[in-house]
Each structure stands twice: as C-alpha cells, then as structure tokens.
Amino acid sequence: MSSIFIVLFGLVGFSIGWFFYSKFIAAKIYQLDPNYVTPAHQFNDGVDYVPTNKFVLWGAHFTAVAGAAPIIGPAIAVYWGWVPALLWVTIGSVFFAGVHDMGALWASNRHGAKSIGALSESLIGKRASALLMVIIFLLLVLVNAVFGTIIATDMVIFPTSVFPAWAAIPVAICIGVLIRKKYNLLVISLIGVAILYFTIYVGSVMPLELPGDIFGLGPNGNWIIILFVYAGIASMLPVWLLLQPRDYINGAQLVLGLLVLYSAVLIAMPTVSAPAFNPNLADGTPPLLPILFVTIACGALSGFHGIVSSGTSSKQLDNEKDARFVGYLGALGEGSLALITIVAVTGSLYAANGADWDVIYSGFTTGPGQTGFIEGGAQLISTGWGLPLAFSQTMLAVMVVLFAATTMDAGLRLQRYIVQEWGNIYNIKVLKNNYFSTLLAIAACLALAFGVTNGEYPGDGGMLIWPVFGATNQILASMTLMVIAIYLIKLGRPARYVLMPMMFILLLALWASGWYIIEHFSTGNWVLVVIEVAVMTISIVIMLEAWSVISKLRGGEADDEAVATGD
Prior knowledge:
Layout: H1 4-29, H2 39-42, H3 54-66, H4 69-77, H5 82-109, H6 116-123, H7 126-157, H8 162-180, H9 185-205, H10 218-236, H11 243-268, H12 288-295, H13 303-311, H14 322-353, H15 357-360, H16 370-385, H17 389-426, H18 429-432, H19 434-451, H20 462-490, H21 496-523, H22 526-555, H23 560-565
C-alpha cells in the first residue's frame, strides 16, 4: 500500500478538526472573547508578560510543546503496526490534544496567566494544587532528562548537526531584536530560515565533535552537561530575546521541513513496508492496550502542553481569540509531525538501511527511535526531491535537536516558575531567587539523567525514562482536563467535551502506570518505581478531591460569581 493513504487519512482528520470541531469548542464551550484584556497586557513587564503576534506565539508555542516526543513516540509505537499509531495520532490530536491545549491556554488566561498547578488551587483546593505542582515538577524533570539524552545522542551520531544547532542561537537573538524593533515579520522570517538552511548545508560538509573528554563523561555525557548549562542560561533571559524568536524561527523551519517531507511523499509515493498490525511481536513486548496511549503522548495528547499553555504561552497571548490559533492549531501541528514520522519509519526506513522492516524493528525496545525518523525521512526527501542524502539527514537531525533544545529551554523556565511559586507559598526567600531556583531545577534533571542508566555510558537512560515520562504525561493531561472541566461547570457550560477525554486517558494512564511499576520493580529500577508510585498515589488523591468538587457543583447551580465575571 502507498504511504499516501496514511497521509490523506491524517490530514483529512486534522482539517475536520480545525475547520469544524475547534470552531465549535472555541465559540460554544470556551466562548473566547476578543474584548477580554489578557494578562500579557495587564502585567506587561517586557520579560515574561509580553503581548505577542499570534504567528510568532504559535511558532514559539508549537516548538516548545513539540520537542522530539512526537517523533520518538510514533517511531516506537509502529512496532505494534501502523494502524493503531495512525488512529491514535489522528483521533487524539482532534478530540483530545486540541481541546486540552486550547482549554489550558484559555483557563490560564482567565486567571491571570496562572500555571495549571496554581490555577487548581482556586478551582479544587490548596492540597490538590500543592500535589499537582509536584507532578508537574516531576514531569518537567523527566522531560528535560530525556531530551538532554536525545540531543546528546543525535549530536554524537550525527556530528553534522552540531554547527547548525548552535548557530541557531545567534540567529534567534538577532530575530528577537528585529521583531522587538517592529521590522517586517515576513521579511525577517524568510531571511532567518534562509540563514538556518545555509548553516545546515555548512554542517553537512563540516561535521563537528567535542575536542576531547571535557568532563570525563564521554561524548554523550559531556554534551548533556553543556546542554543543561546552555538551557539554564537561556531560561533566565527575557522571553523576547531568545525563547520566543528561537521557537518561532524553529517553527518556521519545521513548517518548511514538513512541507518538504509531505510533498516528497506525493512525489515518491513510498510503499508501506510495515504491517498494519504486527502479528510477530517479540517476547517481552508490552501490551498494545494500554501502553500505546502512553508511548505516543506528544502527537496525540500531552500533559506537558498544558504546562506550556498555562506557564508561558498564556503570558504572551495578545488576544483571547488567538487561543484557538495558538493552542488547537499548535496541537495539530504536532500531530502532523507525528503523522509524517509514521510515514518515514514505515515507508522509507527499510530503503535507507537496505534491510526489511522486521529486521530493523526486531523488538519494541530495539527499534531505531528518533534515528529512524532521521534516516527514513532523509531517504524520503532524497528520493522525492533529489537532494543529497547527507544534507537531508543533517536537516532532519537539526530539526530533532532544535525541537528538543527549545523544549529544554521552556522546561527549565517552567521548573524555575514552580520553584519560585513554592517560595511564595511557603515564604522561603532563597527559592524565589532566579539563580538558585534555576540551579535547583538543573540539579534535579542531571541527577535523573545520570542516575538512570542502561550501562552503556553516563546519561544513557533516556529510553528507560521514556515510559515513565509517557505515563506521567498522560496522567497530567487528565488532571489538566479535569481542572478545565471544573471551571466549565462553575461557569454553567457543558463539560462533557472535556470530561469524556479526561476519563478515557486517566483510566489508560493509571493502567499503564501500574503495568510499568510491576515491570520496573521486577528489574530493580527503583528510581523509576519511586517516581511512578508517587505520581500514581498523588493523582488518585487529586482526582478524589476533584470528584468531590464536581459532585457538589453538579448537585447545585453554577458558580454565580464565575458566571457573572466570566472567570
């Protein structure tokens, strides 16, 4: 079968979601108001609260939430077959992720751009809020530890990606300054993307490696340290100087990259080499149900998106109506990345490696991961467009590195926010300090990155952490949907469009967490067991408290004050 059918199925689904379902949710459920004064205008400080053009904010939001996750998750999940992965990516993006992301952005916007953890205090209670912030902090530690490992791995395997990945930083700073000075956005974007693609060409002919064993941890471990030093510095800079323009220009680059990949499918029409449902699963393969739904998180539904929506994007929302464009369309953009990943690893990877698909995917944990997307996608571009394979590989490797890096930037900034919120809540002065809170966040990430290992090299435990990240991510997504649902009920609006996805993903995420607790207990991965048990226990307590609030609201009328004020 031609891969074009996979592409058409996904894109038609996304189109229906954008043109019909998102309009219904925005107008009838969230009732986005263009006259509402957003926190970006109320608290404009030029650092974190900055009213932002919706196209720039979409780019910043999209790349912050995307990372490498919508590539890695589908690249692993296709081992069960391409049909389950395709269905979850398409249905999840339209009915779960879009509603979740837009809702988190809208609810935060109506509460002074509070994070979803802080927002839960006014809607559920102080104890639930304190516990939810623990889950959020743990998830951010998992995200940063995993993505640090992924970036380091790609820079070692694909040294051609090193120069363009770091060259993107000064390019982004220049763009940030020019946007600040009100230069033409289209011109800036075209020039910025052109420079980025020129650096990709330079990188493809000039691979770079670290000069020696800097920290005595091997090339991967050294890169992890360097990446966290960079991310810590970047997380403390004003959003308009690096985070925003870096995310925006990376988003523009990704859009162009996606256009190249999707058009290459139309030209080359690669044949799907993977089975629709894999009948020959290796021993020890996790069950499709429920593990599929935590293996593919970003690209279908992700609690991390709610943190970004309520933690940084809501502070930059120029007009409440932009929440649909930034939130829902951002989710569909990530779904489109997951969709093309499925095509790359099921339709082109075997040609890139000169081996059958079942040889490359010999097991659930032995597949190529993000390198499969890079190799398969590069083969697709080279076949369809005739571009040099080395350039195509570098382009996609840089895409993975830049997305993971921008997620680390945003993730560490969000960790700092949470630590500082704890400082405000418990009146601990040192936790309010930017430098100390950032160092604390970095220390937690490095402890996990180097504390969980496969025994190959320092910091190699990214794939071991991945299932824990996926399950925790989906638990947090259900928590975010729950907070949105309670707010809707308080306003007297229908909440079923949020409650149904919440209950579905909560059941599957808890089921998957229980499965992985048993698995990691049997293999002695105690760090992961402790994290999983903590997240599972905390989430159950929060849900019980939330259900009590929902029952009281259902038994009475909508919150009169909320209805009157709209918040």
